[in-house]
Amino acid sequence: MDEKDGKKDGKEVGTKEESAARAAFFEEQRPHLRAVAYRMLGSISEAEDALQESWLRYDRSDTAAVENLGGWLTTVVSRVCLNLLRARAARREEPLEPAGPGGEPGPRIPDPLLRREGVVDPEQEVMLADSVGLALMVVMESLSPAERVAFVLHDLFAVPFDEIAPLIEKTAAATRQLASRARRKVQRQAPAPDPDLGRQRLAVDAFFAAARNGDLDALVAVLDPDVVLRSDGGAVMARHTVVLSGAATVAGQAVLWGTLSPFARPALVNGTAGAVVIGDNGRALSIMAFTVVAGAIVAIDVLTDPERLAALDLSAFRDR
Question: What is the C-alpha separation between 63 and 70, in angstroms, rounded?
Fold first, then answer.
């Protein structure tokens, strides 16, 4: 699965018929490649950029000798994503992001995938085939680029370690260790949500009802004792970039949000029960994703960055 196979000095190769066949094959692979890129990057726009760059590399390559062209394309898009992750990590060494209470970088909430409950979206079904909830995506933001690539390719797409190793310039054994370390972090901080959407929705509805009524006890009852709330306000609303933990602390914050509860529209956020909060003026105020395990909310991930919210198509949630 080597991207370098068949390179021909960056020139377009093949006849028009061959070029058309290559384009058709790439379009056939696009949903899978987009899913890989989204899991790697947590950004819809960057994932599309990675696909465009991957297409250009594919279009300039002679792949006649490549036996597994789908695997070759997966390697290409993974290498592009790895470069983007490394560039992002380098930028984060500079104090550009809002800091938490202890001076650490604030949480980054990845771009959410949204749809109305009961509405089928085939493209999202491919993107979320492995139930990659937003909480898991948030935790993956804390992984190193090499850890993220190893974890995503092996655990989510079953790529063997010996094929991942050359990509991240590690041995297969070291790649296995990276994936294992990433897996432990993910399992510890982002437990798998309840597979029953109905039970998820019951917990989320109970949360909003208690917040609307200012019922602190009812809020604590629906929250896991160790619940974590992560909020990303971006540069514009840096004061909203926080991490809170513990049922009492999160419940106290939720009571303050009680006035927003009537504006919460039910949504599926990365495949799990959540909400889009739309104000009276039609402007999106926040997107909230909930992780529900055994009837209790263990994580709440909130995007309040007005710039990123404005870039999302939320028209389906403005009409009730």
Answer: 11
Nearest-angstrom CA–CA distance, 20 and 201: 46
User: Structure tokens of 209?
Assistant: 């009802």
Residue-level pLDDT at 107: 85
Pairing verdict, β 296-303 and 284-293? antiparallel
How many separate helices (H) and strands (E) can be counted in the chain? Answer: 13, 7
DSSP letter string, 246-282: SHHHHHHHHHHTGGGGGGEEEEEETTEEEEEEE-TTS
pLDDT for position 64: 86
Backbone angles phi, psi at 105, to 5 degrees: -60, 140
Per-residue confidence (pLDDT) for residue 126, from 0 to 100: 53
Q: What is the pTM of this model?
A: 0.84
Query: How many residues are recorded in the chain?
Result: 320
CB-CB contact of 232 with 244 (8 Å): no
The two structure tokens encoding residue 214:
């200012």
